[in-house]
Specification:
- The chain is of the alpha+beta class.
- Helix content is 17%, strand content 19%.
- It is globular and about 40 Å long.
Length: 196
Amino acid sequence: PDLANKIAANEHFYSSQLVTGDAATWLYCSLPLILPRVGYGEMSPGIPTAAHTELLWSSFGAEAAPSIGSFIESFASAGLRCATVLIAKSGEHIFGGFMNQPWRLDGHSCGSTDCFLFSIDKGLHIPYSGRGGPLMNDIGKATDNSLQFGLKDLVFSGDLSECSSELESSYGIGAPRPISNEAKFLLAGSRTFSVD
């Protein structure tokens, strides 16, 4: 009932300027349900609940030049340790990624196989495929100046003018190997891009 009520009330991504209406519902329904926390090794007796979404940072109308560093700083200073949905726009393309664990700012990997990339304008949900190896150390990484989904599948860096995407490294939809142009251009329209 909670999920159905949220969907009916269109309460998800309500403050986003990029994802609205049916696209917001589609993306929200792609998020995994949250199980109540219990002790190690115990079965969860609770009912899964729907995710709560809240806008934490936006480059729209920012007083200072937007950067990944300012995103990370605002996220860390708020003491937030939660899942994130990053939504970006480059030209006509709206895309992003879901990280189901808090970003680690020390360059170590984070996330699980529940993480995914997405393309709003193409209606694609791009799962983690594990091509990086059995240790799953390629799901996501962050430093003080970059956020990275996969080995090079989606990388936000610096002042957001030198970002890149090349699917089929860790996340994929089965594009041909060696890496095809489709895999390089699918999310942002080109392998390198700047965020609007």
